[in-house]
Amino acid sequence: MDHIIKIIIVLIIAWIVNRYVISFVKRALKKRILENSDKDGTRAATLVSILANIIKFVIWLIIILIILSEIGIDIGPILAGVGIVGLAFGMGAKKVIEDFLGGLFLVVEDQYRVGDLVRIGDVEGTVKKITLRRTIIKSDDGIVHSVPTNQGAKFIQKIEFFKLEFKINVCYSYSRFYYYDDFSC
Questions:
Q1: How large is the angle between the packed helices 76-92 and 42-71, nearest 10 degrees?
Q2: Which residues contact 48 (CB under 8 A, 6 or more apart)?
Q3: How far apart are CA 127 and CA 116, in angstroms?
Q4: What is the number of alpha carbons within 13 Å of residue 160 lying toward its C-beta?
Q5: Which residues contact 55 (CB under 8 A, 6 or more apart)?
Q6: How many Å apart are CA 36 and CA 28, to the nearest integer?
Q7: Could you tell me which of 154, 144, 143 has the C-alpha nearest to residue 120?
Q8: Domains of the chain: residue spans and CATH
Q9: Is 143 strand, coil or helix?
Q10: List of residues 6+ apart from 107 with CB closer than 8 A
């Protein structure tokens, strides 16, 4: 009976910590990132989502280990097994991890945003969507390209451009052009 009470207390504490830590992280990151020129909030939302999921995973992993220890299961061999499985998974999923980390650094460093004109490798066009694994680029000829973010982190060239608009009124009368300083015809 004593173990059940301890497990219930641990679960309640985990739920409270999870809720308040995630809430605090969301508020702090959104405020900080929005202050640093994140106009539409997409960068803040992406970073908050990533960090919140990592924190949730770590908190619940620790809670599961505490509960297993409280039940009487030796967690030493479990931790060793998880380490070996993690190493094998890391070796097998090297490309996925590279893409994920490339996307994470791309978002954190704010290398480019949706709507920017970029050249990544051989692909040039407007960024339509950025995820942690890939960047969607639409080229001028209408072709949509999916570029892995680890490739994007190596070959980014952000193309800056500007647009000038001039409004010139020209009055046409029969076969002659007349120019008026006051732009009224």
A1: 150
A2: 25, 26, 29, 30
A3: 6
A4: 1
A5: 18, 21, 22, 25
A6: 13
A7: 154
A8: 2-92 (1.10.287.1260), 112-159 (2.30.30.60)
A9: coil
A10: 43, 46, 47, 50, 130, 132
Q: Which amino acid is at 179?
A: Y
The pTM for the full model equals 0.52
Task: Report, as an integer, the average pLDDT of 126-153.
Answer: 81
Tokens found for residue 21 = 């830590």
Q: Contact 7/70 with Cβ under 8 angstroms?
A: yes
Report whether pLDDT(136) > 80. yes
Q: Which two tokens stand for residue 141?
A: 């000829």
The structure tokens listed for 142 are 């209408």
d(CA 10, CA 71): 12
Tokens of 113: 């945003």
